[in-house]
Amino acid sequence: MNIKPNIGILNALIRITFGLTILAWSTSKLVKKPWRDSYLFVALCGAMKVAEGIVRYCPVTALCERCQEMIQEYNQTPDSLDGMEGMTNMDGDSVVPYNPS
């Protein structure tokens, strides 16, 4: 697995800023109501955004880029029915010939 920076400097600075803001807000709420698990979850999400900004790598962005590459590869592969010219039904759709064996 090749991990290299996949977000820009400005995007990283925005992630760090918002991540620290979310982290500060959630920890201040967590001090008043420590039994609320939702504030802990929000604090973890804020910390994750700060970490993404520092290392300049976002796994969600990498996943989306990889999915787009896979879709482009799938669209570029030729169909298996290309060699069967003339094998169409009345609607003009391609049909696979009947094979009884």
Descriptive account of the structure:
The chain is mainly α and 101 residues long. Helix content is 60%, strand content 0%. It is built from three helices and no strands. The protein has helices at residues 9-32, 37-55, 59-76. Helix 1 packs antiparallel against helix 2. It is elongated and about 75 Å long. 8% of the residues are buried.
Number of helices: 3
Mean pLDDT across the residues is 85
Rg estimate, integer Å: 25 Å
Unreliable spans are none
Structural class: mainly alpha
Distance between the termini: 44 Å
The beta-strand count equals: 0
- Bin the strand percentage: under 5%
Largest sheet: none
Helix content: 55-70%
> In one word, what is the shape?
elongated
Order of helices and strands: HHH
List the helices and strands and how they pair.
Elements: H1 9-32, H2 37-55, H3 59-76
What does this entry show, briefly?
This protein has 101 residues and is an all-alpha fold.
Question: Descriptors for this entry?
Answer:
single chain; 101 residues; 3 helices; 0% strand; elongated
